[in-house]
């Protein structure tokens, strides 16, 4: 269905973006007691895991999982800063940049970098 490791990286990016979509709305579920936000979360959790599983067909699972988590963590933190009023101090930004650097390094040094 999806050929080549380049497709794996695109699938992984989409999986990470899907993770951001569900993580950002978790507070609105109010402990998964509100049906529509909960269904939104369930849909994007499922989509994210499905896309991650497709990406691991061509990428090493350790690399794929670490990059997936990194995209989700940084994206959700940026969402929190931009839309939820979370602090954007120098320490937080520096730590997020460390994660971005680690994700970029995993992509760069992956045996399937394509």
Textual characterization of the structure:
It is a single chain. The mean pLDDT is 91. This protein has one domain (4-109). By secondary structure, the chain is mostly helical. The longest helix has 23 residues, at 61-83. The radius of gyration is 15 Å and the shape is flat. It is 75% helix and 0% strand. Helix 1 runs parallel beside helix 3 and helix 3 (61-83) packs antiparallel against helix 4 (90-109). The protein contains 4 helices and no strands.
Domain count: the total is 1
On the 0-100 scale, what is the average pLDDT?
91
Query: N-to-C SSE series?
Result: HHHH
Distance between the termini: 17 Å
Low-pLDDT regions: none
> Tell me, what's the shape?
flat
Share in β-strands: under 5%
Helical fraction: over 70%
Largest sheet: none
**Total of helices:** 4
Radius of gyration, whole Å? 15 Å
Q: How many strand elements?
A: 0
Indicate the structural class: mainly alpha
Secondary structure blueprint with pairings:
Layout lengths: L3 H22 L9 H21 L5 H23 L6 H20 L5
Helix pairs in contact: 1-2, 1-3, 3-4
Short description:
With 114 residues, the chain is mainly α. It contains four helices and no strands.
Keywords:
single chain, 114 residues, mainly alpha, 0% strand, flat, Small_multidrug_res, membrane, transport, transmembrane
